[in-house]
Amino acid sequence: MSKTGEPVTSQSGDAPYVQLSGISKYFAGIRALEDVNFACELGSTHAILGENGAGKSTLIKIMSGVLQPSAGEMRVAGKPVQFRSPSEAADAGIVCIFQELSLLPDLSVADNISISSPPRRFGLIDGRAQRRRAEELLARIRCEDVDPRALIRDLSLSRRQMVEIAKALGKQPKVLILDEATSALTSRDVETVYDLLGRLKADGVASLFISHRMHEVDKLCDTLSVFRNGSHVETFRKGERSPSEIVRMMIGRDVEAQFPPRPEPVARSVHLSIRNLTWENRLKGVNLEVGKGEIVGLGGLDGQGQKELLLALFGVLRGVEGTVKAGEVAGIPSSPDAAKGGKARIALVPEDRKTEGLMLPMSIADNLLAASYAKVSNGPMIDPAKEKAAVREGIRKLQIKIGSAQDPVATLSGGNQQKVVIAKWLMTDPEIILLNDPTRGIDVGTKQEIYKLMRDLADEGRAILFYSTDYAELIGCCDRIAVMYDGAILTELTGDAISEEAIVAASLNIDTGEAA
Amino acid sequence: MNMWRQNRAFVGALAMLAVLYITYNFMHPRGFSTAVLVQNANEVVAIAFVAMAQTLPVLLGGLDLSVGAVMTLTACVASVLVNGSPAEILFGMAATLAVGAAFGFMNGVIIVYGRLQPIIATLATGAVALGLALFIRPKPGGDVDGDLNWALTNSLWDLVDTYGLFDPDAAWFQPIAWIPVPLILLFGIAALVWVPFKKSVTGRTVYAIGSAEGAAYMSGLPIDRARIAAFTLGGFLASCGGLYLAIQTSSGNADVMQAGAYTLNSIAAVVLGGTSLLGGAGGAIGSLVGALILRVISFYFRIVSIDPLLQPLIEGLVLLAAVSLGAIRTLRVKNRLELFR
After folding, report:
1. pTM score
2. Could you tell me the domains of chain B?
3. Is A128 left (phi over 0), alpha (psi -120 to 50) or beta?
């Protein structure tokens, strides 16, 4: 584990505006940041790079006052500071534009832009001044088309993102942090934001830029910092490191978790075939085949369309185009009900266990049976004997640790809750299993059980499509990895070609010359 | 033990009812007599059915503002149809219940396919039901079969006696002859309708929707069908209340105030019976008990001398105290964020 986090060598003479020394952050004993030394200078455009979970988000949350560090010191303009809230950080000139939008959907654009310090007259909010202010700020980012009186909920995602930027500019930042701020923008807006960053730089504002798009980073930034596993690896000027060096810095050397042995690649009969699948502007022509008994991993950075692909296959999304063939059944299911039944028999372990996977107040037994009541019913009535037997079988198969099957599922630990979700779907005896990050937030022991279970299910002849944000997991579990980028599968890796370098390179859509 | 933990609210309501009603009988000059029991039983049936009807939309996480109006409408329908030959009477009763179920079905269809919030959709359809009721019964009146009225509003002895089923004085019959028919109807229908519903896939789906609609959908449960079924059953139960009210009063009355009062009391009864207004937890039997509690509270005003003008005030305070008992659990919650889930 690299703990070097060497202090930034300031090329220009002046002291950095923001200086972090020895910053650590723990969540319930889990390390998110460890002993980070980091600096940010006025007038620079500074990119922060790293894998999912490298600590980038935690870093900017600490800088912008959302989180407080567990240890270490932060200085702004040479003075030590401790931000207790984002507004204190904003007062010190550090403003962040978050990935998750912070706008209030039921308020107007003008209300949102001035939400923290609205202009007042006689103690009351001055609506007209507020509107003028919104107009000025929107004009600065060429969004004259946005009516300050419009409600946020009526705006498209890209317009909302621009309002978010206007709101941040309204706080007159010295350091502007953009966390994936361009991911939702149209290409015209992206140009506008690039322009804006240029102008801010000329005005002496520092921009901290988190992006997964290498070409963007290359174009805009003058300084790059790489994070890995909660540690600051290195900071360097643009052009000092080659793309393949950057990729290697991002992944490091750790290999963790035990995986069941991967079988030799064999020719398999195709069970799930996806041709040219498109949906809105999130899926842009996905082509993929999954064989019987095969585990195919979906890789890539967050938000490249992996989740949408799984939801589309499960019949959740409306207006999906393209062809899907599941075994003998052709066509995209119209609903989860249609997907799980009939001949296709598709199962999806959803992303959010608590809202999509489980009915938390209901009993473990009810949750286990939720997808397969038809199997334990005589006509419309549930047969208590069959119900009991099925519940017992599900609990046994996954070794779920419970008190009584009548307890609310909310009383279980995260790992056991996830086992309930998986057991629920195994009860439908699915041919195709879609897994959306099934090991997120669960303990290592349960993770290993799930890995083994996946391999066992594949060996029984089921087709498994597995999305994970953890590359080590993809490498350890999958027969083949399809890396998604911007709504399509750009690269498929098989056998020896599967390596962390190859996945990261494909995720960023850069050619290091080493990837297959 | 497990039962107790999961149905704490229900068991609490049951205990409250027992204490209230036993105390009432001790204070009543003719307490613990069949006459008092029969009279009380008659007064609880309609509100108990309406409260059970309200339970279904509440389990889904909504409210039905039309239950009282559907009861009034079906009472008016019954006041026209339930008389004549035995066959005609049976047809009339079946038709009354069918009207209620159909009205509930319509509510369900409007809510599911119109994508409306139940509370607003039923506010509108409730007004429609009252309009229909006024159309059928512009003035109070009607004549419901007298034998039926007598037989269903008294004890089992009177039921047997009225229709000459067998000798009502037979020795084997005496241990149960005192039981009021309205209570048998109430608990009988509750057992025959609610218990199977709760054990059906549709019933489980209703609970699942109230618990986490997203998870219910992602499990491939029949969400739309369950919603419509829930409102249909609600309409049916409300019409049971309406039919009984018509038989009990031998007439129909399109009383707008009464319909509103029944709707509001039904919500109070549901809460008292331990069903969460957020949906997903509780049941119709609890609401039945809740309705009994509400009525027993009002019985007290007959034997305790309180200025009638103060009655609503005191009723309100008692109700507030009763529902507050249910909120005590929140004092024990350590993570305040959980209060919002």
Report:
1. 0.73
2. 2-327 (1.10.3470)
3. alpha
